[in-house]
Amino acid sequence: MTIKRPTTTQLLDIASRLHIQLTDAQAEEYLAMMQANFDAYDQIDALPDEIPEVKYSRDAGYRPNVEENPLNAWYYKSKVTGASTGRLSGLSVVLKDNVALAGVPMMNGSSTLEGFIPAYDATIVTRMLDEGVTVLGKATCEHFCLSGGSHTSDPAPVHNPHRHGYSAGGSSSGSAVLVANGEVDLAIACDQGGSIRIPSSFCGVYGLKPTHGLVPYTGIMPIENTIDHAGPISRNVRDNALLLGVLAGHDGLDPRQYTVKTDDYLSYLNRGVKGLKIGIVKEGFQLTNMDDRVAEKVRSAAKKIEELGAIVEEISLPEHYLAGALWTPIGCEGLTAQMMHGNGMGFNWKGQYDIGLLDKHKDWRQQTDKLSPTLKVCMFVGQYGIEQYAGKYYAKAQNIARRARAAYDQKLAEYDLLLMPTVPIVAQPLPDQNSSLTEYISKAFEMIGNTAAQDITGHPAMSVPCGVVDGLPVGMMLIGRYFAEGTIYQAAAAFESAVDWHDC
After folding, report:
1. How open is the CA angle 136-142-145, to the nearest 5 degrees?
2. Which has the closest alpha carbon to 462: 268, 197, 176, 246?
3. Residue 20, domain extent
4. How far is Cα 480 from Cα 463, in angstroms, rounded to an integer?
5. Is 96 part of the annotated catalytic residue set?
6. What pTM was estimated for this model as a whole?
7. I need a labelling partner for 456 at 20 to 30 A (CA). Which of 61, 258, 330, 350 fits?
8. Whether residue 42 sits in one domain with residue 154
9. Residue limits of the Amidase domain (predicted)?
């Protein structure tokens, strides 16, 4: 099989876009010289791709109807039974619908990707199946994961399990709902600006964003390599720690993984908090949309942890705001370059590329009217930064991100954990179909003020349910040192054992 060769007209057009001027004669001469290069493309085209082995059979599955799926939390149901024994034997899991499950449709919340069927399982899916889990299918997620609300997914918004018509949080909206509702034991979620922790807070479940790179992202559709994280959602701390122990570790295929350090996370659960030093970050309580009732619940939870024996002190971390600001050029320019122009895969990294996903996602260019306003606004910012400033502010933000991380590290050298509200509000009403662009977009990003920072710095952070405001859950966020997820579980387990958050 041979690839299609460019014509002289196509080469002149390519040269023009590269700001190179050619005569017709020069173009024809260049074309003749290029043929040997295209022969190499032919050779590659004739070879089979390197695709990971699919080890477990699965049924064809189906997309549940509204009667079976009243909260719109399921995208696709398909049962995959793992090994007969293992650490996750007897437990069920649902995958966020940006995680590859071979033979089962994946649309990542966007109709532009509808019809794509992965050829292999994500690394973390194979790891879970090897440990005996039963995969029950795919959970709805927000449109290409670009929303902290739950109103952007195609074809319908996801409802909060505690109050219909209210946001479940995003972008891992369905993952949190199905765990909170008891339809699955565990869920896989992903986090680039808070997308594990926001829905966990809104739905009253435990959601951990691990240290950047601890959990391999292989087989998960990227947004931007430097802020991509995958992690567990559960109804209790033990299951969360159990699942992380299965997910974590180097796989040799993910460029996000470097000097990865795993741990026995379950061993931390009964240690208590006596002697732990916890810093309450005052900046995390000073967001412009901070609900005082949420702040009060989180401070009460911190007081309870202090009563259990921890040393709890208020501290100042101004760089928390800086890290949040850095998200905009890194997130917007990065996703525009990698997820959109790079067709999801991008360039310049070694690892497992999903060729099928690349081929399918490239067609977004013919369906731009179907892209969500939340993605569009990020693309507009990103494209402007790339075109007007040649990526200067993306590069500068990545450099300054080291300063933000160092500030977090300095406080975490003094304290074992940092503490703040996961989000400044409880779940809000979903915008209606006639909402303005301003309301639609604002409702997607109004809650990320505390969560985006740790995606930039890479520190592990967990949302822990700690109370209720007006019948809706409140989340407390615990932040730890790099690869110190065990310490987060230590404090979360102690708090969980001491209180029933439903009554707080």
Report:
1. 105
2. 197
3. 8-46
4. 12
5. yes
6. 0.97
7. 350
8. no
9. 72-487
Number of neighbours of residue 289 by Cβ within 10 angstroms: 11
> Residue 167: CB partners within 8 Å, gap ≥ 6?
149, 150, 151, 160, 202, 427, 428, 429, 430, 443
Question: Given 110, 195, 201, 234, which residue is catalytic?
Answer: 195
Q: Provide the number of structural domains found in the chain.
A: 2
The arithmetic mean of pLDDT across residues 116-138, rounded, is 98
Same-domain status, 383 and 252? yes
Residue among 96, 297, 304, 411 flagged as catalytic: 96
Q: Give tens-digit pLDDT for 3-33.
A: 999 999 999 999 999 999 999 999 999 999 9
68 within some domain: no
List of long-range contacts for 293-296, beta carbons under 8 Å, 24+ apart? 293/469, 293/470, 294/421, 294/423, 294/424, 294/425, 294/426, 294/469, 294/474, 295/421, 295/424
Q: Which of 150, 167, 171, 372 is catalytic?
A: 171
Q: Is 38 exposed, middle or buried (0-12, 13-18, 19+ CB in 10 A)?
A: middle
Q: Is residue 53 part of a domain?
A: no
Residue-wise pLDDT tens digits, 178-188: 999 999 999 99
Residue 86 tokens read as 């293992």
Same domain, residue pair 30 and 143: no
Tell me, yes or no, whether 135 and 262 share the same domain.
yes
Of 115, 119, 138, the residue nearest 189 (C-alpha): 138
pLDDT at residue number 253:
97
Q: Please tell me whether residues 97 and 16 are part of one structural domain.
A: no
The 3-state DSSP class for residue 380 equals helix
**What ranges in 188-330 are assigned the alpha helix state H?**
197-203, 237-247, 292-307, 319-327
Facing residues of 464 across strands? 476
Give the whole-angstrom CA distance, residue 280 versus residue 207: 20
Please say if 195 is a catalytic residue: yes
Nearest Cα neighbor of 135 from 113, 102, 111 is 102
